[in-house]
Write a structure and sequence with these properties.
single chain; alpha/beta
Length: 611
């Protein structure tokens, strides 16, 4: 990798010091004295000249050393005079010397070019330094990147899967295009529009699309760019930003990651940072001060709205909050269509199946999925990306990179096979669980020695108590399978236990699904303590209630483990037959496992009902 060295002003100072040192040394060592030509003749007569170098106009030489043991004498220089004239002048005892007529242009260029070179080098270094850090006069200037319509290049056609958010933003576009329609009735546009949603859902893309659709300048910057080490700079940048926006109105100001700037203010040394609070105060003042009819729309995005200062969210500031959530199945299909335009994919690609395989993925996740599939197709030397590449890309994103070179001893490999088949068989046997798509015993990621991929057939927003219990039983199916086959359990179920316990605790504390605890909500949202010292998340119930909650969680886990255990005890033959296939192939599809289950069921029926 090429190394880039950062420029430092110390390099320049060190270079200047070295040049001055060399110059002083050379000046002292090679100093040349200019003497008259008549003195030179006298030195010749006195036999004091050791050597000379004669040119057309000059004579330069060295005198003999006056001190015994010294190697060299002083160096001198003189201008030549006509020999005949010099004899006549010497005869009449006249002191004479030669002079060279000065050339103004030559003298001018002799010092002009070095000075010009010096200033050129100085300007180059100053420009480099200005590129790395702002000058003193530009510290208070805002760092917003300004995009015009042709530079934005993003419209609503590029933003898919967020139809409700786009409908909310259409009013903003109409106001920027025709503000008179709103003002003639006395109405006003919201001063601020806050886009709220998980990371990667397209909040920044939507803001750019609004600017692209309305054709107005787009000021884009991050909330962290306001906060600096110098006190007052953040507030100065806010003032400069709004002044510049008013000059270019109508326009859009977009602040990404607003929580870096607008975090809730508090008291005490732990409550906040003075410089950040000054910057936030200035932003609040500017939002109150500018005229809504100017056509300046302030948009911001955050994925942590719960920590924002309440003063930012009151009417008159960020009036409108728009949720940009993860896309549903139809939204995922539309997003995939947009990203598939940039790659060569098979025409028979099943987008509906691909959308079913990616529940909960955001727009950024889907863009990464398409890119991973394209890279896999290139690695396999294919000319087009097909469904196998997309399936493998989904597994790679969910489970991590395959570690085929990781050596596992046969005993552990067999344990992993039965563990994963336990998950799959319990999921296939209980109602309301997600269908099993694939079982693998190839290690993936950091710690996963195998995995069972379950793909939901539709987006779910509510789950019944039975479905949650069956989900817990599926998670515990791996450990139950180990106990059924080997008579003991391993450490491979630690992640399953964590997920199962979390679901059971949520059922008791949040969903009111325990008859003993009752329909009471015991869990508090984990928010930062604004007025006080740091995070204070103490439970608001007594010791007896805490013991009851723990006992109910343990009871749910125990009952569902028993359910999985009894279910797998009746499927020992299926477990062993499927394990042989899985150990041989390392991967089996859900349909293959279903065929094994149906075949074993037929064999058992034939044994029970012989002809």
């Amino acid at each position: 990798m090429e190394k880039h060295h950062k420029f430092s002003v110390w390099y320049v100072l060190l270079g200047i010091w070295a040049v001055l040192l060399i110059q002083s040394y050379l000046g002292s060592a090679f100093s040349i004295k200019t003497i008259p030509y008549s003195q030179f003749l006298n030195l010749l007569k006195e036999n004091k000249v050791a050597e000379v170098a004669v040119t057309e106009n000059r004579i330069q030489g060295r005198m003999k050393s006056q001190k015994p043991g010294a190697e060299k004498g002083k160096v001198f220089r003189t201008v030549r005079v006509d020999p005949d004239l010099s004899k006549l002048l010497e005869e009449y005892d006249v002191t004479f010397k030669g002079e060279i007529q000065s050339n103004f242009l030559a003298n001018l260029f002799s010092w002009f070019f070095p000075v010009l070179l010096f200033f050129g080098i100085w300007y180059f270094f100053m420009k480099r330094m200005a590129g790395q850090q702002p000058g003193f006069m530009s510290l208070g200037k805002n760092k917003a990147k300004i995009y015009m319509q042709e530079e934005v290049g993003v419209t609503f056609e590029d933003a898919a899967g967020v139809d409700e958010a786009k409908q909310e933003l259409v009013e903003v576009i109409e106001f920027l295009k025709e503000p008179a329609r709103f003002t003639e009735l006395g109405g006003r546009m919201p001063k601020g529009v806050l886009l709220v949603g998980p990371p990667g859902t397209g909040k920044t893309l939507l803001a750019k699309a609004v600017a692209g659709e309305s054709g107005v300048p787009f000021f884009s910057l991050s909330g962290s760019e306001f906060v600096e080490m110098f006190v007052g700079l953040g507030a100065a940048r806010v003032r400069d930003l709004f002044t510049q926006a008013k000059e270019k109105s109508p326009c859009i100001i977009f602040i990404d990651e607003l929580d870096a700037l607008g975090k809730a203010r508090g008291f005490g040394s732990m409550g906040g940072h003075d410089e950040r609070e000054q910057t936030l105060n200035q932003l609040l003042v500017e939002m109150d001060g500018f005229d809504p009819t100017l056509g300046v729309i302030l948009m911001a995005a955050t994925n942590r709205p719960e920590i924002l200062d309440p003063a930012l969210l009151r009417p008159g500031r960020f009036d409108r909050q728009i949720l940009v959530d993860r896309p549903d199945k139809k939204g995922r299909e539309d997003i995939l269509k947009i990203h598939l335009k940039n790659i060569k994919a098979n025409k028979n690609l099943d987008l509906e199946k691909l959308a079913n395989m990616t529940p909960g993925m955001s727009g950024a996740d889907l863009a990464n999925l398409v890119n991973e599939a394209a890279l896999l197709a290139v690695r396999r030397k294919k000319k087009k990306v097909g469904m196998p590449e997309f399936s493998d890309a989904v597994e790679r994103i969910i489970g991590g990179l395959e570690k085929k070179n990781r050596l596992i001893n046969p005993k552990e490999r067999e344990t992993v096979a039965y563990h994963e088949l336990g998950h799959a068989l319990v999921a296939m046997s209980l109602p309301g669980t997600d269908p099993v798509q694939k079982i693998s015993i190839i290690p993936r990621g950091v710690a996963a020695l195998g995995y069972t991929l379950q793909v939901p057939t539709e987006d779910r927003f509510l789950m019944s108590r039975t479905e949650l219990l069956n989900k817990i039983a599926t998670l515990l199916g791996g450990r139950a399978s180990e106990e059924v086959i080997f008579g003991e359990i391993s450490t491979g179920a630690h992640n399953d236990l964590a997920k199962a316990t979390e679901i059971a605790r949520s059922m008791v504390k949040e969903y009111g699904m325990s008859s003993k605890v009752g329909q009471v909500y015991f869990s508090r949202p984990k928010k930062a303590q604004v007025f006080g010292w740091g995070m204070q998340n103490e439970d608001e119930y007594g010791q007896a209630t805490a013991e009851l909650i723990d006992s109910e969680v343990a009871r749910i886990i125990k009952e569902q483990y028993t359910t999985a255990l009894e279910l797998l005890k009746g499927k020992k033959d299926i477990l062993r037959e499927a394990a042989k296939v899985l150990l041989e192939k390392e991967k089996i599809e859900g349909d293959e496992l279903k065929a094994i289950v149906e075949k074993e069921a037929e064999n058992r029926q034939k044994q029970n009902n012989p002809e």
